[in-house]
Amino acid sequence: MRVVIAGAGLAGLSCGKYLVDKGHIPIILEARDVLGGKVAAWKDEDGDWYETGLHIFFGAYPNMLQLFKELDIEDRLQWKSHSMIFNQPSEPGTYSRFDFPDIPAPVNGVSAILSNNDMLSWNEKILFGLGLVPAMLRGQKYLDKCDRKSWTDWLREHNIPERVNDEVFIAMSKALNFIGPDEISSTVLLTALNRFLQEKNGSKMAFLDGAPPERLCQPMVDYITARGGEVHMNSPLRQINLNEDSTVKSFTIASLNENEKKELTADAYVSAMPVDLLKLMIPNQWKGIDAFSKLEGLNGVPVINIHLWFDKKLTDIDHLLFSRSPLLSVYADMSITCKEYEDPDRSMLELVFAPAKDWINRSDQDIVDATMEELKKLFPTHFMGDDKTKLRKYKVVKTPRSVYKAVPGCQEFRPSQKSPIKNFFLAGDYTMQKYLASMEGAVLSGKLCAESINKEFSKTPQNVS
Ligand SMILES: Cc1cc2nc3c(=O)[nH]c(=O)nc-3n(C[C@H](O)[C@H](O)[C@H](O)COP(=O)(O)OP(=O)(O)OC[C@H]3O[C@@H](n4cnc5c(N)ncnc54)[C@H](O)[C@@H]3O)c2cc1C
Description:
The protein is α/β, with parallel strands linked by helices. It has helices spanning 10-21, 62-70, 107-114, 122-145, 151-157, 163-177, 186-198, 212-226, 275-281, 290-293, 334-337, 364-378, 439-459, and strands at residues 2-6, 25-29, 41-43, 49-51, 57-58, 77-79, 83-87, 95-99, 205-208, 230-232, 237-242, 248-255, 260-264, 268-271, 303-310, 321-322, 328-333, 348-353, 391-399, 424-426.
């Protein structure tokens, strides 16, 4: 069966990969000249990589880890020590750690929390631990129910002091969805905490050993094309054309290079585009259908990814760091954490700037200046005196609409991979799967989409085109 997929992010590529595994022929069309969507990366004039986002892989990503195994590229994940490391704003230049010992879950997580005495008091730890019991015992149903309230409301409901937010959850909430705890749905944090506490290696983190388009997306493309599928770059979907019964007749594709349009027909059609772009392309005949009108409730959140190349080393920490800065979210010294970006003498910090709504329209220079002011607090000794660390160059990548903003109530807007239209399917991190907006969510959505297509079409006799 021939399946046309619009979008070569992780969801579209995963859908293609699992379709070829089932013997189908995916034709993947990517609008841009780079693979990966939100994991896309480019080389600058010196040959240094810069990325759409600083990306962390977690032990609690079963579908992503399985994919690495199936592509035979598991050695490309660089696993770090099982810890979470936070900057200490009250003592600039110092860190507070949650270290997870090598013992079964949830004891390792409980031990990591109990043995950290910098950030939470005993009273806060006990109240917080009690608050988490329903999530651990009642699972997904409880998590879904919590989507009605923000994380801050959830804390209040459980009589947990809001100071806990300042210490830990502003940082975690910004890391998970680029917004603060007053805005984020409590489902997001509870889902992450649940995985981290219930799975021994759930919160263990890995960096990819190089740029995602080459080190992760290209092996997926090679896998797909070696088995008869196709991947075409610079081929944006422009229009979804319908039959009289509202099923899809064809996709109109533009070629960016040749300025020409062509129509592609297939047995099934998939949108693996971001939700904001899909919304613009929904045909009028579908607009009254509940699953499509609900998409209006999902909106991408702005975020900025910054790369700063310095003339010296700023740190020797081989890990992700939670900055706890009002402007910044997580960051890492990629010259240490990532093999391909390695530099023994000079740091390259990659930092996520969030929340970014007030900054997304500001100039790159303004954003870098503000970031440098924050870095002076994080590295107080490096930017003073005669031997100051100097910024050699920078790159700023803005994503005005990134992953869907996970505000309270938006779980119900997330569509299934199987749409109400018989030959039209959805893949993407925003579609319903339990890993929310993440690389794992994108890969799982692609896999579920391929399964839906296979199931739907194995029910009815098909004309193989
Ligand atoms: C700054 C940042 C940091 C992040 N950090 C993490 C992290 O640490 N861990 C984690 O798990 N996740 C992280 N994420 C989230 C993760 O990147 C996404 O959840 C995931 O990559 C989304 O994949 P997707 O395939 O659903 O969508 P996308 O990656 O958006 O892919 C959609 C694709 O569709 C293409 N497209 C658009 N329009 C058309 C068209 N008309 N025709 C054809 N193609 C089209 C796009 O070009 C794109 O390639 C981060 C994201 C950002 C932005």
